[in-house]
Structure of NUDIX domain-containing protein:
Amino acid sequence: MSFNEWRFCPQCGSPLERGEVEGQSRQLCFNPPCGFVRWDNPLPVVAAIIECVDRDGVVLIARNRAWAEGKFGLVTGFLERDEAPEDAVAREVREETRLESVGVNLVGVYPFTRNNEVLIVYHVQARGEIVLNEELAEYRLIAPEKLRPWPQGTGPALRDWLLGLGLPVPDA
């Protein structure tokens, strides 16, 4: 059983087993009245390339409290039910940094297979005093031309954004 597998059916409590549905291996409940299928769809996550427009356009990257020292990334969060992605990313920026979004533009949509997520990444122009919430340990403000994208997660989106600005980007 892999790390992300479920042991029991959430509907009837019977053990889940592997089987094929629509050409894919899925976890299934073989209890006839139930028939639950675990589709294991990826979760939608919004991410923000935060440009601080009142600080000469530097980009805010942050370190989550759960991450190792020196590991920084974009502000991210889960899309809530009935929430538009552009509203979700502005909410996450406000919740995690207290910055107010003044412009939100889609950069792109990226698979993040390792976490079974779909990343919806935005360039967010924001302003205000930076106050981190309890999720974040620290932040850095970096000029766009000094940013170095990382190879996975939100890194490819940051790379695309920098290329869109016409900045040279070294290979990750």
In short: Residues 85-97 form the longest helix (13 residues). Residues 43-164 form a domain with the Nucleoside Triphosphate Pyrophosphohydrolase fold (CATH 3.90.79.10). The first strand starts at residue 16 and ends at 21.
